[in-house]
Design a protein that fits this description.
single chain; 282 residues; alpha+beta; 10 strands; globular; HotDog_dom_sf
Length: 282
């Protein structure tokens, strides 16, 4: 199924963007941050780079799920559902308000697998973000393409290892406005995050699916509240189970070690781990 897709490996695309003050203001509002200055040249939290570099595909180029149809830059994977499986990020310099930034994306690998819900294909993207030619962040994303949702509920993913003892725990109940505002910031048209009828009838979910980026953002923000003035330096995250809008969840984390390394995770209302992040903060 992936033989013809391998020719897409190595393709690259560059997108330019700007860390504009209105975007920083909106992200600060979403995260209830009052400590981020908006003047030109002021440093921005590293992990807020997530709101830049949207695809901005023309309306006519969107698929039924609201994403850009595959076959333009992304390969034409013959599976209908997609989700972010994992990502790895390293930051080397803070973005600043007003920065002109470029992101070069390369299709690094296309890997077929068989999982709990059937056939999967993982497309790994490697992003390099530069400012005036200097790299300020490198990211790898694993996009998972899945078979159509079955009526029977999929089993929960098994945790790869027991979670450590939490040094802190925060209640977290994502609501539709939060999901909408995050999707709007990213110009993310994926309908499972804002169209409840489509999420239920089109993809078989019981409610709106919380964007993995939302969970990641609020986990990192919760950790940073415990380390005022610190920045996220490195993350490696794995999506394990979905969170659903309106259902109580919990954000947890360990205390950082001497190198600033900690484990962060989110649990759903049953206690199952939804997202796990190995982070370095300093």
């Amino acid at each position: 199924m992936t033989g013809d897709l391998q020719s897409w490996v190595g393709r690259t695309r560059t997108v330019a963007d700007e860390m504009a003050a209105p975007l920083v203001r909106r992200m600060a509002a979403l995260t209830d941050r009052t400590d981020v200055p908006l003047q030109h040249g002021a440093p921005v939290p590293n992990h807020w780079l997530c709101m830049l570099f949207d695809d901005a595909a023309p309306q006519a180029a969107l698929g039924a799920d609201g994403h850009a149809a595959t076959g333009d830059f992304l390969p034409p994977v013959p599976l209908p559902r997609r989700m972010l499986g994992g990502r790895r990020l390293t930051y080397t310099a803070a973005p600043r308000v007003g920065d002109a930034l470029d992101r070069e994306t390369m299709i690094a690998a296309i890997t077929p697998k068989v999982g709990r819900s059937g056939a999967l294909i993982f497309v790994t993207l490697r992003h390099s973000i530069t400012r005036a030619g200097d790299v300020i962040a490198v990211e790898e994303q694993d996009i998972a393409y899945l078979e159509p949702k079955r009526n029977a509920p999929e089993p929960k993913a098994e945790n790869p290892a027991p979670m450590p003892m939490a040094a802190w725990r925060d209640a977290f109940t994502p609501d539709p406005v939060m999901l909408f505002r995050y999707s709007a910031l990213q110009f993310n048209g994926h309908r499972i995050h804002y169209d409840a009828d489509y999420a239920r009838d089109g993809e078989g979910y019981p409610a709106l699916v919380v964007n993995g980026g939302v969970t990641t953002l609020f986990l990192l923000e919760a950790a940073l509240r415990r380390q005022p003035g610190a920045q996220v330096l490195q993350t490696a995250s794995r999506t394990m189970n979905p969170l659903f809008c309106g259902r109580a969840a919990t954000l947890s984390g360990t205390a950082p070690d001497a190198q600033g390394r900690c484990i962060l995770w989110a649990e759903d209302d049953t206690g199952a781990t939804a997202l796990r992040i190995e982070a370095r903060i300093g």
